[in-house]
Amino acid sequence: MGDRRLHPADLLGFFLLALIALPVGALVATTGLAELRAGLAHPLVGPALALSARTTAASLAIVVALGTPLAWRLARRPGPGLVEILVSLPVVIPPAVLGVALLAAFGRRGLLGGLGLPFTEAAVIVAQVVVAAPFYVQAAAAAFRRVDPDLLLVARTLGAGPARAFFGVAVPAALPGLLGGAALAWARALGEFGATLLFAGNLSGRTQTMPLAIYTALEADVGVARALALVLAAAAVGVLLLVWALPRWWGRAR
Fold first, then answer.
1. Which of 64, 82, 145, 237 has the greatest number of C-beta atoms within 10 Å?
2. What are the structural domain ranges in the chain?
3. Mean pLDDT calculated for residue range 231-235
4. Is 5's pLDDT higher than 80?
């Protein structure tokens, strides 16, 4: 049997886990069912939920459509390079900086100011695409790297063209990783705050997403803010469970 004694390093790890779990636990413990129902019935919630649903669905579709071929190309490259660095930039750049950068690019006096994007629903989608794309592209590239090259070679030997080999062999083999990356990208888009606030504004019914609604509710009704926060936390937990379960489910299905 292994050594089950509690070591000082374990205590440090448990302290970090407690620090991570305590805020979410406190959110659940302090939000009663009646308060949750009342919060979700608040006039602020419906438009924010609808807008978040529309914009995250659109941004995820864009990320998957554009990010899948990019991830495939990255997976086929021999090593990391400039493209990988550019893809990862939104992960390390603070969201507020991204918001200012989006204004510099698409604002009224920006490089592409004639598009009229700022403070529109399209601006929300653009901000979500920028912050969420790295999560999908990196996960998809890692999934494509795990595809057995011999499978592609056999498909090409049997007469499949590059597109058919990609969609018929590479995508199905990498599907759990692709779905997991898409789930992470959707969760990141759903929780986006800083870049959206600066680039799209906080206009109720037009650009006010769920995180922005939480920010607004905190100034007037903490109960509504907690109810919205609990909904986003539940969505995040669902995404984590999905990412954890997908490879196991796919392995059994195959």
1. 64
2. 33-253
3. 88
4. no
Please, what is the angle between helix 82-92 and helix 45-76, to 10°? Answer: 160
Q: How big is the chain by its Cα radius of gyration, in Å?
A: 21
CA separation for the pair 5, 56 (Å, rounded): 47
Token readout for 7 is 């070591």
The pLDDT of 239-245, averaged and rounded, is 83
CATH number for the domain formed by residue range(s) 33-253? 1.10.3720.10
Q: Tokens 């990320």 identify what position?
A: 63
- Quick one: pLDDT at residue 149? 86
9 pLDDT above the threshold of 80: no
User: CA of 226: how far to CAs of 122, 153, 236, in Å?
Assistant: 28, 53, 15
What distance in Å separates the CA atoms of residue 13 and residue 156, rounded to the nearest whole number? 49
Give the burial string for 20-34 (b: 16+ CB within 10 Å, else e). eeeeeeeeeeebeee
| Residues 101, 105, 109: CA angle, nearest 5 degrees | 110
How many CB atoms are closer than 10 A to CB 46? 13
Half-sphere exposure of 242 (CA within 13 A, CB side): 18
115-148 pLDDT, tens per residue? 889 999 999 999 999 999 999 999 999 999 998 8
Helical spans, DSSP H, in the chain = 8-30, 33-40, 45-76, 82-92, 95-106, 121-145, 149-157, 162-165, 171-190, 194-199, 210-218, 222-253
